[in-house]
Amino acid sequence: MLSYLGKRVFQFLLIIFIANSLTFLLPRMIPGDPILEAMQIKAAAAGRQNVDIQAWVATYNEKFGLNEPLWKQYLIYWRDLIRFDFGYSLLDYPATVVSKLKGAIPWTLGFMSVAIFFAFIVGTTLGALLAWPRSPRLVQGMVPFLMVISAIPFYLFSLAMIWIFGVELRLLPTGGGHSPIQMLAWNWATFVDIARHAILPALSLVLFGIGAWALSMRATMVSVLGEDYITFAQAKGLPERQIFLRYGVRNALLPQATGLAISFGLILSSGILVEAFFNYPGIGSLMFNAINQKDYFVINGTVSIMVICAATALLIVDLIYPLIDPRIRYRNK
Amino acid sequence: MKRSTILKILSVFFILSLLMTACGAEETPVPTEEAAPAEEQAAPAEEEAAPAEEKPAAVEPMGEPTRAETFVLTLWSDTGGSIPAFDNWSPVMNAGGALRGNGGNIGMSEGLFYRNLNNGEETPWLGESYGHNADFTQWTIKLREGVEWSDGEAFNCADLKFTLDMLVANAPDMQQSSYFKEWIKDVSCTDDFNVVINLNLPYSRFMYPLVIGWEYHFAVVPEHIWKDQADPKTFTYYDPEKGWPVWTGPYKLVSTSATQVVLDRRDDWWAVKTGFVSELPAPRRIITIPFASDDLAAQKYITNEIDYGGPLLIGTFQAANAQNPKLLPWYPPDQKVLGAPDGCLYDLIMNNQKPLFADKNVRLALNYATDRQQLVDLAYLGSTVAKVVPFSEYIYSTWVTGDLKAAIDSYDRMTPSPDKVTEYMTTAGYVKNEAGIWVKDGATAKFTIITPSWLRPIGPVLTEQYTQAGFEVTEDPDATNTFGNALSSGEFDAMVFVFCGSNFEPYDTLSMFHSKMSAPEGTAVTNGMAGWRYGNPDMDAAIDAMQAMFPDVNDPAYIEQVIAATKIYLEEMPAIVLADELHVIPGNNTYWTGFPNADDPYVAPFPCWRDIFLMTLKLKTAQ
Questions:
Q1: CA–CA separation, B334 vs B317, rounded Å?
Q2: Which of A23-37, A303-317, B178-192 is the least confident region?
Q3: Nearest chain B alpha carbon to A42
Q4: Looking at this predicted complex, what is its ipTM?
Q5: pLDDT tens column, A12-45
Q6: In a domain, A96, yes or no
Q7: Cβ–Cβ of A40/B97 closer than 8 Å?
Q8: In this structure, is residue A110 part of a structural domain?
C-alpha cells in the first residue's frame, strides 16, 4: 500500500515538475523579448511618441529579474512557485499574478461547478435510460441528437446562444459576470444578477456535456446490463426499478464518477474558450487575455494553477479508486 | 438514497456554487461616506461656516442612483478583459497608464490645464495661467485658489512641488519621470499658489505634459498623504478605511473590482463651491467596466447596458447602429467616415538600412505604387482618410494651411502612378525581367511586409499593390506578436505600423525623422515607432532649429523650418504614410446626450485621454 502511495505521489510531483518547467521554458524559447513587446504594444496603444523604450525595457528586465542568467531565473522561479508567488503581471505592474488569480478563480469555480454537475446529472440519467430496454421510445430516439451535440464544439453553442437569447430575444445578458450597473454586494439582487449572467456560459457547457456524459453512461450501462448478475436478478423476479437502479445504474456509475472527479480537476482549464466568448471574469478569460497580451507571468501563474489542480485531481482519483470500488485492489507484485 | 435527499444535496450544492461566484467579484466597498446619509456629507461645509445656500444638494434625499442617473462606460480597448489595476490608484505607478487603466480620469483626477486638440484652445483648470522667461529656462505656474482635495485639505503649490520632486527623484520608474528628471533643475513655491520651475536647459515645450491632457496623464498628488509614504514606487494609494484615493474631482471612489469601478458624485466639489463651475455634473454615478471585445461592447450598446467606451470596428458599429439608432459616432452615421482621429496614422515603415530601401528612388517608387484610396476602400470600407504627410488630423486642421499646404500639394505624392514607379525604379538602376519583376545586378526587388495583428486589413492590399507594380513582395502576418522586437532590432524589411507623432504641433512629429532616433545597423533603436533608421543632416538641421524655437503657427520663421523638414520628408519618403487612424466611438444617446462630435468638438472623444473629464461635465440626461 505504501509503495503504491509513494509511486502515485512521485508521479504527481513529476507531473508538476515537468509541466511547470515547460511553462517556464516555452515562453522563453519564443523569439523576441517579451518585455520589449509589451512596452512596444503599450507605447503604440497609448500613442506615445519619443519614448525611450529601451530604457523602459532595461528597467523592467531588472525589476523582473529577466537580466539574470536562465539557470538563475529557473531557480528563482521554483523558489517563488513553492511559495505560490507567481510574481507581477507584466502589463499590469505592480499588480501581482496572485491577486489576479484570486479575483478570477471563484468566478470559474462557481459557474463551472454548476455546469459540470448539471451536465453530469442530466447526462448520466439520460445515458442510463438510453441503455435501458424498457425506456420510452422518445428517450431512446435521442441518441442521434446527443451524438450531434456532443460533437459540436461548445463555443459554437456559445455563439448561437448569444445571438438567440442575448441579441434577438434579449432575455439574458450576452457577457460579463454581472450587469454593469449592479453594485456587487452580499444580497439577493447581486445573487440573481450573477446567476443570470452565468446561465448562457454554463448552458453552452451543459449542452455539450450532456451529450458526452449520456453517451459514455449508455455504453457502460449496456455493458453492465449484459452481466450475469443482471440476468440472475431478472430470473429472481426482482422489480424492474430495482434492477435498473441498484444493479444497473449503481455499477455503471463508477467510471462516470471517475470522470466527474477528473472534470472537477480540470475545472479551471476546461472553460477557457467559453469564458473568453462571454468575457466571463474567470481564470479562462484571464489566461486568454494574458496570451493575447503576452503577459508571460500571468500565463505562468494560470497554467501552474491549472496543472496543480488537474494533477491533484488525478492523484485523488488514483488514491480513492480502491475505496470506492471494492472489486479493485492494488497489490505489490 | 431517497430522491428528496438527493434533491436537498443538489440544492445545497447549487447554492454553494453560486455563492462562490458571488464572492468571486472580490468587490471592495468603501465603507466610509457611501453608507453615511447625505446629511453627514454636509457636515464639513457647516464647520467651514459656508452659507446655507451653498449646500442644498447635500441635504437632498438622494437614494440609489437609477440607470438614467448612471453613466456607464468601458475602458479603452487596449486594457484587456478586466480592469488592469483596479486596486492601484497611484497615478505614477499604474499599469494602465496613470488613471486611464481604471477610469479615474473620467471624474476623480483633474488636470492643471486641458487643451482641446481639435482647435488648440486651452482650458485652465487647477492651474490658472503659466508663463516663461525669455530663454525658456524658467517656467511659472499660477494655481487656482479655493481648490480642495476630497478630504477637505487645500490644494496648493506644495502639492505640485512635491509631485514634481517625487518624479525627478524616482526616475525612470515612475511614469513621465525621465522627462522631468531630464529637464527640471529645481521647483520652488513663491507662495501657496505660485510655482517656479527652473530647467537645466532652455526648453520651449517643457509645459506639454502639464498643459496638454491627451495621453500625458500628469496628475498632481496630495503632499499631505504622499509625503508619509516610505516608498512611493510601491504605494498603491488605495485604502478604503482611510478614504484613499483622495482627488480634487467631483467624484469619489465607491467600490472597485476587476469587473467594475464605481464612482459617486461628491456634492462638496470645490469647483461648485467656489463658483468656478455653475453646477455639479449630471451623472450621479459613473461606472467603468472592462472593454472585453468589439462584439461584446456592441452587444452592450445595443441593449443599452453601456453609454460610452472603447471603439467599435466600422462594420460592428453599422450592425449595432441598425439595432440601436441612438448610437451616434463622431460624424453622423449616414456618412462613410464616422470615426474621430486618434492622432496616429497608418504607415509603411521601410528599413532604410536595408540595401533595397537605402535608395530613395525605390522608396519613391513604392510611394507611387501605393493606391491609398483603394487601400482605404478595401481595408476599411472607405471609413478613413488617405494621407501622405505624417501629420494627424489634429495638426492638419490647425497647421497645414498657406505655404505649408502649398508645399505639400506641390509634390503630388498622393496620386498613384505606374509611370513614376518606372521612372524612379529606372533611376535606381532596376529593369524589369520577363516575369515583370524589377531586377538590379541579378537581384530582384524583393521584400517582406510584416503586419501586426491589429493592422491585418492593410497587409494584403499593400502586398497586392506592390506585386502588381513589379516588386517581389511577401506578406508576413505577425501571428506571434513579435513585431516590437523586429522594429527595435531592425531585423525586418518593411512593416505596416502606426505613426503616432504629435497632436499639437509639427515638431514632435518631424523629430521622429531626426538621425538621433536611428541607430547603427545591428543595434536597437530607442523607439520602435521610428524604426525606419533614417538620417539626413539637412533634416536634422531643420528639426534642431525648430527645437530651439517656440512653436507658433503665426511665426513665419518657425513655419519656414516646418516647411523645410516637410519638403525633405516628401523628397525622400523615409516612410510611406497611408491614412488616418480613426476610431468609431459611439455615444449612446438613450440615457445621456452632450457627447462631443464633429459639430460640437469641445473635446477629443477618447475615453482613455486625460481631457475626457470635460465630457463628464457636459453630459445631460436624456430622460
A1: 12
A2: A23-37
A3: B78
A4: 0.76
A5: 899 899 988 988 888 777 766 777 776 766 665 5
A6: no
A7: no
A8: yes
